[in-house]
Structure to design on (107 residues):
């Protein structure tokens, strides 16, 4: 995220669930990292380009999520370059997810 120009403040917390609960973010989409930007919650290994698009487009949503930790997502790169297809999900205010972006798709 820093390489994409974001200024980052890191707070290490023992439990991120209260942050997600306060924003009505579904537990089923929870992951290992929780971030906040411009009123949106960003959960998991979300690519910076998706966060930039989110902030630019400002959809009516809670935020973005990449559930689990897919190989090849930011921070989950491997020395061998293994990638798994994964989706970044837009989490609507209802809590329902919809695909926001697709990554590492087979050609």
């Amino acid at each position: 995220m820093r390489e994409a120009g974001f200024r980052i403040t890191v707070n290490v917390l023992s439990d991120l669930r209260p942050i997600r609960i306060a924003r009505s973010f579904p537990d089923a989409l929870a992951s290992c990292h929780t971030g906040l930007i411009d009123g949106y919650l960003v959960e998991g290994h979300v690519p910076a380009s998706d966060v930039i698009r989110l902030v630019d487009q400002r959809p009516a949503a809670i935020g973005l999520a990449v559930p689990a930790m897919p190989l090849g997502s930011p921070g989950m790169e491997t020395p061998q370059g293994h990638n798994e297809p994964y989706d970044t999900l837009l989490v609507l205010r209802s809590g329902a997810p919809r695909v926001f972006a697709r990554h590492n798709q087979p050609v």
In short: The two ends are 27 Å apart (CA to CA). Residues 15 and 73 are 23 Å apart (CA to CA). The chain has two helices and five strands. The chain has a mean pLDDT of 93.
